[in-house]
Amino acid sequence: MSLTRLLITAKALIPGTTKTRLRLRPEATARLQSAVIGDAVEKASALGPTVVAGTPADALNLVEPLLPQGVRLFAQGGGTSGRGCSTPPRASSRRAWSPS
């Protein structure tokens, strides 16, 4: 069994906190973020097992509905999106991260 996984980092869809440089209304940027996450997960899942590291940890409930069955979600440790995960993942919801 392969332990290879595709990792996607995802920032929760909180209006006013995502895609702020686009100069769109906060609700529009949250919808755009939703589409970006959904598209990335769909494409990655077609290539192989996929996991999503979400941030902030207390808003993963906003990311989870965007994920198809079988895609695992965990809280991104340390740093913020784009800076990598510097600490081990923390289990979240029914899709807890595991190497298998």
Q: Main sheet, how many strands, which sense, barrel?
A: 4 strands, mixed
Q: What's the number of structural domains?
A: 1
Q: How much β-strand is present in the residues?
A: 15-25%
Radius of gyration over alpha carbons?
Answer: 13 Å
Strand order of the largest sheet: 1-2-3-4
Structural account:
- The protein is an alpha/beta fold and 100 residues long.
- The protein has one domain (6-80).
- It is 22% helix and 18% strand.
- The protein is built from 1 helix and 4 strands.
- The chain has one helix spanning 26-47, and strands at 6-11, 50-55, 72-75, 90-91.
- The chain has a 4-stranded mixed β-sheet, with helices on one face.
- Strand 1, helix 1 and strand 2 form a beta-alpha-beta unit.
- The longest helix is centred in the middle third of the chain and has 22 residues, at 26-47.
- The model is unreliable at 80-100 (pLDDT under 50).
What features would you highlight for this structure?
alpha/beta, 100 residues, disordered C terminus, globular, 4-stranded mixed β-sheet, 4 strands
